[in-house]
Amino acid sequence: MTDLTLDGPWLGFDLGQPMEALSWSINRPGFVQTSHILWREVRNADLLQDIDVCRWLEKESKRQNSEDAGRDWGTINVAVRVDAGLSQTGLLEAMSIAVQARTAAVMDARFDLPTGIATGTDCVAIAGLAGSTDFAGLHTDIVGPVQCCSVYDAVSVGAGAWKMELKETRHA
Q1: Is 24 helix (H, G, I), strand (E, B) or coil?
Q2: Residue 133 pairs with which residues in a beta bridge?
Q3: Pairing mode, strands 112-113 and 116-117
Q4: 47: burial class by Cβ within 10 Å (0-12, 13-18, 19+)?
Q5: Which residue, 44, 144, 152, 160, shows the most beta carbons closer than 10 Å to its own?
Q6: Percent of the chain at pLDDT above 70?
Q7: pLDDT tens figures, 12-21
Q8: Rounded distance between C-alpha atoms, residue 142 and residue 16, angstroms
C-alpha cells in the first residue's frame, strides 16, 4: 500500500516497503534502494541568485530527517510505483514510458512558450520490486499501458488544474 502525505513544503510518497528506484533527482540520482520518495516545494524566493542548490537541499532535508530517492523541485515531478519485479533494464524501460506519457500530457495541455510548446523536463522516479523482468514497455502487461495511462492522466489533471489556477490569478 502506498501513502501520500503533504506537510508543506514537503510531499512524501511512502512506497510501503524498500524498493529499487531510478531517478535523476539532485541528491540520489541513478539506481538506489528506498522506501520513500520526497519532494520539497521550492518557490522563486527560495532560489537566490548565488545559491548552492545541492547544499540548500541537503540542509532542508536534514530538517525532514528522512532518506529518500527523489527530492527535486519544479512544476511536474512524477513518481511511479510498480508492483512487478523489475531488473535495472526493466526500470529503464518503465522510466521511458513514464517520460513519454508525461511529455505527451504536457504537450497536449498546450503551455505555449516563446520557443514553442512546453514539453516538461522535471524529475521522474520509478520504483519497483527488485526482480529479473527486463521488459516493461507498452507491449507488455507488466507495466506498459497501465503506467502510461496513469501517468498521462495524472499529469493532464494536474496541468489542467494549474492552468485554471493561473487563469484565476491573472483575472483576480
Answers
A1: coil
A2: 86
A3: antiparallel
A4: exposed
A5: 152
A6: 91
A7: 999 999 999 9
A8: 19
